[in-house]
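Hello,

Following up on my earlier ticket. Below are the two sequence lines again, exactly as submitted.
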Amino acid sequence: MAKLQIVAKNNTLVKVGDAISLAREEIKQANAKDILIAKENGMKPALLDRLTLTDARIDGMVEGLLQLVQLEDPVGEIQSMKTRPNGLMIGYKKVPLGVVAIIYESRPNVTVDAFGLTFKSGNAVILRGGSDSIYSNKKLVEIIRKSLEESGINPDAVILVTETDRKYVDELMKLNQYVDVIIPRGGHGLIQNVVQNATVPVIETGTGNCHIYVDKSANLEMARDIIYNAKTQRIGVCNACESLVIHRVIADRAIPMIVDKLKEKNVEIRGDKKACEIDSRIVEASLDDWGTEYLDYIISLKVVDSIEEAINHINMYNTGHSEAIITNDYDMARKFTDEIDAAAVYVNASTRFTDGFEFGFGAEIGISTQKMHARGPMGLDALTTGKYIVLGNGQIRE
Amino acid sequence: MAKLQIVAKNNTLVKVGDAISLAREEIKQANAKDILIAKENGMKPALLDRLTLTDARIDGMVEGLLQLVQLEDPVGEIQSMKTRPNGLMIGYKKVPLGVVAIIYESRPNVTVDAFGLTFKSGNAVILRGGSDSIYSNKKLVEIIRKSLEESGINPDAVILVTETDRKYVDELMKLNQYVDVIIPRGGHGLIQNVVQNATVPVIETGTGNCHIYVDKSANLEMARDIIYNAKTQRIGVCNACESLVIHRVIADRAIPMIVDKLKEKNVEIRGDKKACEIDSRIVEASLDDWGTEYLDYIISLKVVDSIEEAINHINMYNTGHSEAIITNDYDMARKFTDEIDAAAVYVNASTRFTDGFEFGFGAEIGISTQKMHARGPMGLDALTTGKYIVLGNGQIRE
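Thanks for your patience. The regenerated structure is below:
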């Protein structure tokens, strides 16, 4: 895999895309089996929706592969080769990680996305999708493997764990000799299971308890519009806003404006005592609310006396994802971006932009909420590592 | 810690160095207690040597801190701030990891080194050294903490785990909420214990089963000298050569020359059948030899028919540390550097150069033999992460 040339990789991505497009009826039939079983098991509508492969979603998967073709080869470059005083030339070459395992929920489109990203970056991938999508995943991986074989590439570059028994996930997480990294994608339970049990290095992704702090110097119309966007534009995503922090000095004016707007989408607002006093439409928050990622039409709201209190509150409850300040004060903007501990810190913009495409990285494999290896949206670069190339002419160490 | 300015950090490093230098008698007294107990417990001479703090070693610790002062601040820089089509400005700012835990053996100098590197990079550090060095470590950390306090810095930037019971290490390894990364430094057993049991992200360091492959086009004098250097210049280090792979075509000439030289230091050579036929001073290797990091005056030797066989053998048995080819053939050099999977791949130089100082990074916290976050010698940069700074003027996501 690491030796594949960029032209071969790109041609294969196109070929896989064509094969998926051509096989769409087969894919939808396999998917229909999953949906039938899921319905019998009483799967909730939101999850059923994510499981369902329509023509538009199949087109989306193919489009994703074609977008990858446009991106530069993420491996092969030797960065900053320098000559040491003893004549050794030392450079750092970008190389694939090796074998990447991805553990995810019942979203068959992730199967194709994950293949595309790992393949373009020269990695082999082991996929373990949710058991509810097993027929869809088997069909998709069968198509991908067939295209690889036809391109003269070892089809084991993509392996689907077809056993749905959980014990195989437990085994996978401990295969340090064979797997270089595990990336879990999904809800809190899935991710924590991997973090707690894997001995293979893990890149933690996803959970986002994102805050927006409205400073006393904020343009309140801007604050209102950004909050409305960050909360309601798409509620089930990790970069949606889950909690507001508002400076006391402008709370009387800001809160009713913000509540008016959020009520257009019937958002439930859970506030502290002060917030409830200001607007009777706000219900009282419990302590649990501050740490909750709702992924729903609910938001928490805290009134603070200072930016220090806001920063302490956010650094206590955030999940290291995306945090925003709305301010027109230079010092406050600088203080917030300096002191907030998160993958992305915003001034005067919606947290919804934390995303590989919006950041200009192209497709992403997930959003890292930890600090090791990669932080924030992870594109192809996050699927690479390096090796030092050292060119000598007989140097020995004195 | 993350907010400390570079001048304050550098002044504090100097101050700590002065304090250690001034307290050298106290330090040696504390160290003498450890040595007394270690001798009573029958500690081996090599380990006793590592435990012992002489004036020269104390000077070395101070010198290490002063060298850090010379290095640029590794945090604060915002890399490549770019403007997106919607006007958002997005840059990646280098920031400290946060809290770094270091688990190591009974080498008190690591206590000071680890403090210096984590402090300069803006991190807090939790130190857990070997129980045999507890009096030395307590004294050193006491001195460091006192200097921090006098500099107006929270002394909890450096915490020594003073309980020597192993259960506290087990707890430390699972404190995901408080610890950002664990770096184990020491032998195979210590490192594997951390890798297998930590839920906190780990950077694996150290084990080096390093090979030198002598290609058929090699300058044999150069090969001999590099092998002699890589094996015998210092035997107990992870970048020492532990195994030779020699092309069959030149084996008859190369092996006696290499054995002659290695026998100057009484190195035991354990070879495959072919090697034993060529030189009667070679003893027969068992299968276990290929995977063994001797850290001793022993080396294994395998004769191969091709570079492909050499690469397969090395990629099977190496530990991802440092691997070298001796060749004068351009294609072979390129093939070897492309296909060997290791942190550092050498052409015509001794593996002993894999080291932060030799690579020009300044001091190092260890040599990463895994692929995540950092690979190879880890300097200050490896102790940092980033956060995206996103500056808008009201952007919302459509």
